[in-house]
What does this fold into?
Amino acid sequence: MKTIRVVAAVIKGKNENNEPVIFSTRRGYGEFKGGWEFPGGKIEDGETPRDALKREIKEELDVDIKVCDFIDTIEYDYPEFHLSMDVFFAEIVSGKLFLKEHEDAKWLKKDELYDVSWLPADITLIDKIDSMLI
It folds into this structure.
């Protein structure tokens, strides 16, 4: 089975009540169109996961990020391929979020993490993220 190596960002922020929130995106293309995910993408040859994540977020959302703590590597078998996804917390350092490839996005509070239909690999992260959010 073919393995696809990707990175994903759990972008942290604060809402108007100063509560922690994370950014989620809804896929606007491909086989998994309409599913919710953490933004990111494929690691190119010669790139580190952190460099790939900065590039992908700039390409997809038009913002520059600071890649923070490593969360986990998710290994997930989809029917057609194996996904190996390195996931990091991230923070926006400059720019304004603009959806270039996604059809929707939401900032989710801790108690809203299960309110969207996550893609199968991404849903495996939610308990861990929930326990890490203060």
